[in-house]
Amino acid sequence: MTTIGVSLNISINTIRCPLPLSGVWPIIPPLYYIMASLCPGGSPKAVQALSLVLSIGTLGIFYWLIRHLEFIQPRFKKYCLLCASLLPSFVIRSNFISNDALAFFIGALIFLQTYLYIQRPCLRRQNVLALYLGLGLLTKGTFVFFVPPLVCLVLIMQWKATQGLRKSIFSLFVFIGIFTCLGAYKPIANRIHYGRPIVFNMDVNEGCFASQGPVYNGLKSFYDINIFKLIENDSFPFIRSYPLLLYKSFWFQYRPYADQSLLARIGHYNQKATLLLGIVPSILVLIGILQCLSLIRDLCKYKEMPLGQFNNILYRVFCCFLFLFNLLMIVYYTHKFDVWSSVQAKYIFPSFFGFIVLLHAGLDLLVKRWTALAKPIYYCLNVLYISFGMYFFTSMIISSLQCSV
Question: Count of CB atoms within 10 A of residue 195's CB?
Answer without folding.
Answer: 8
